[in-house]
Design goal:
With 627 residues, the protein is of the alpha+beta class. Helices cover 14% and strands 32% of the residues. The chain has three domains: 3-95, Cytochrome Bc1 Complex, Chain D, domain 2, CATH 1.10.760; 126-173 and 431-627, Beta Barrel (Lipocalin), CATH 2.40.128.630; 214-340 and 342-425, Lipocalin (Beta Barrel), CATH 2.40.128.
């Protein structure tokens, strides 16, 4: 009899004895607890600092739908696939928060008056999507935004819409005239809001929650104006902007292991779709055959979602002739996910995409890289690899200095992998400089890179802080006419090593111009707003508006900085409880992913991001300048 069987028999006997001694206590033992202890506890009870595994306290803030989606179609699909249906239901019920049932009254309560529900399909579009324009610079002029540097210094709260049962607000909205399109992902609803008041013009139920930020454009030259986003099941969806009617739903992935994280980008009559992969998290399960999925970029016909071409980040995985310590055959190469939003240069016919780490060997030259692709065919033009041999998955320690022991699916630990997980989480930015175009990009290593668009060769680079799996430049950079702005998250990095904040460089030369540090504020007033005051880093990409930078922190604070000097023009709170216009209790939390947008004389912040142990929240908050 093996030691593990003896241990299980001992544990079972102990439960039986306790049950006989105290039947009432036995009745309180939830059947999902043993499933959690067996399949989840090793990673979620005490995650390593900087790990992407959420602590169990964060899991307990999520509702059943969110947990089930993660285990069936999301990042924890590998664990979910290993569970019997009854066990999956039990562990979801064991972990899920038990909110009071909420009907669609939250929508009806905030419904616009009948004479204000129209969407003007002929209005101006200040932003096409996550990068604002296809160059990904995240730059809005005063005319586009209805805001000036001076007015941004006078921002005041205008309204708050609470999303029921939500803990994560990850999607950036888009604006059409006076209509703000926003995805209430955890409520499986797409909303068309009156930007000025927050009232709801229309609400469309989605087949599954929308995972990406949104894009807006025409579905072909003569097609309708549509809002497009990717859902939790890996499908791209297009809705008519005027009505919320779904026009098509298509799968742009090359295999079912892919996931859509970065936002789609309109490029003429087609959409460019970044495709990420799930194996990085599934590798935590010892019996998972690591690893076989890889990143990609696809182009689809905007009129119907039909696939036109796919660029693959790695070749298809093959058996490696080696088994892990659990006796499972290993596969590779894999990984190099594309979880950021690409940039598109329609004049030159190019797509610029960025990738993450390999998740199993052999290491490829396309991981942790910037890739140039032909817009018409998807053919690879050039590759710039910032970090070679970064083979890593969540069964591995983060860096060789870590004391964490490698798990079974880190079978390559004794190879030459650097084990860093230093993806390009933000998409490339196209920047004209001195008669040539540069490709700017920020990396989780803390590096900012400038490449020549024609050749992919490095022009300059700089580094801020040590970088972490959740830090350095996490979700992207921004640029104005002369400067590039790098947000640094650096969670868990102590002072004075941390570089958390925003750093400005001359985009043409890489010369440092100024640095502003986001330092923690754990005063009693801030502690009263809820947990997370120590998380001062800037993970969400900043936004350039007129002559200012808007940045929001993992601790829930919103900052307005002067773009020329880094001087703080305004600081506002989004964390903590707030009154909502739709009667649902509202609470702000961390701002991460695609949390910022501006337009129509307003600034919009999705406040709440429960992943990675960060403060949860459900508040879409609008600010406008006061007198």
């Amino acid at each position: 009899m093996t030691a593990s069987i003896i241990l299980r028999l001992w544990a079972f006997s102990a439960v039986v004895l306790v049950s006989l001694a105290n039947p009432a206590l036995a009745a309180e033992v939830h059947p999902g607890q043993s499933v959690y202890d067996r399949a989840c506890a090793a990673c979620h009870n005490a995650p390593e600092p900087g790990s992407r595994a959420a602590p169990v306290a964060s899991l307990r803030q999520m509702d059943a739908r969110t947990l089930r989606a993660s285990l069936t179609t999301g990042v924890m699909k590998g664990i979910g696939d290993s569970l019997a249906p009854d066990d999956l239901r039990a562990v979801v019920d064991y972990l899920a928060i038990k909110p009071k049932p909420i009907s669609d009254d939250w929508i009806e309560t905030a419904r616009c008056p009948a004479d204000r529900r129209a969407v003007d399909a002929g209005a101006a579009i200040p932003s096409g999507g996550f990068g604002i324009a296809a160059d990904n610079r995240r730059r809005l002029t005063a005319a586009q935004s209805g805001l000036t540097t001076a007015s941004l210094a006078r921002l005041k709260p205008a309204w708050t819409l609470a999303i029921p049962n939500a803990t994560i607000l990850r999607s950036q909205p888009v604006l059409l005239g006076s209509t703000l399109f926003y995805t209430a992902s955890q409520a499986s609803t797409l909303l068309a809001l009156d930007a000025g008041t927050g009232c709801i013009k229309w609400a469309a139920k989605t087949p599954s929650g929308i995972r990406t930020s949104l894009a807006i454009g025409r579905l072909g030259k003569a097609g309708p104006l549509a809002v497009v986003g990717g859902d939790e099941g890996g499908h791209l969806q297009a809705w008519e902007a005027a009505t919320g009617k779904i026009l098509w739903r298509a799968d742009p992935r090359h295999d079912t292991g892919g996931v859509l994280t970065g936002a789609p980008v309109f490029a003429g009559d087609r959409l460019i779709v970044p495709i990420s992969a799930l194996d990085v998290a599934q590798a935590m399960r010892p019996t998972f055959a690591c690893c076989s999925t890889h990143g990609a970029v696809s182009a689809v016909d905007a009129t119907n979602g039909k696939l036109l071409w796919t660029w693959h980040a790695t070749p298809d995985a093959q058996p490696l002739g080696v088994k892990n310590s659990a006796g499972v055959e290993m596969r590779g190469p894999s990984g190099a996910p594309v979880w950021s939003t690409p940039a598109v240069d329609t004049k030159r016919g190019l797509v610029l995409a960025s990738t993450g780490e390999n998740t199993s060997p052999p290491a490829t030259g396309t991981s942790d890289a910037i890739i140039a692709l032909d817009l018409a065919t998807g053919k690879q033009k050039w590759v710039f690899q910032a970090l070679a041999n970064d083979v890593w998955n969540m069964s591995c320690p983060s860096g060789r200095e870590s004391r964490r022991k490698p798990g079974p699916n880190c079978f390559f630990f004794d190879s030459d992998s650097v084990l860093r997980d230093h993806d390009f989480g933000g998409g490339p930015v196209l920047f004209p400089a001195g008669g040539r175009t540069l490709v700017l990009a920020g990396q989780k290593s803390g590096d900012v890179w400038a490449l020549d668009l024609k050749t992919g060769r490095k022009v300059w680079s700089d580094k801020f802080g040590p970088g972490t799996p959740l830090g350095g430049v996490h979700w992207g950079i921004a640029a104005d006419e002369t400067r590039v702005f790098a947000p640094i998250a650096d969670p868990g990095v102590p002072e004075p090593v941390s570089a958390s904040g925003v750093h400005a460089l001359d985009a043409a030369t890489g010369r440092r111009l100024w640095s502003w540090r986001a330092l923690p504020d754990c005063s009693e007033a801030r502690k009263a707003r809820g947990p997370g005051c120590e998380r001062a880093g800037i993970s969400a990409p900043p936004l350039v508006v007129d002559g200012a930078i808007i940045a929001a922190g993992l601790d829930g604070r919103l900052w307005v900085l002067d773009a020329a000097s880094g001087t703080v023009l305004a600081s506002l709170e989004t964390a903590g409880p707030r009154d909502s216009l739709n009667g649902v209790p509202a609470r702000g939390g961390a701002v991460d992913s695609g949390g910022l947008f501006a337009g129509g004389g307003m600034v919009f912040v999705g406040s709440g991001y429960a992943a990675f142990g960060q403060p949860a929240g459900n508040a879409l908050i609008a600010f406008r300048p006061g007198p």
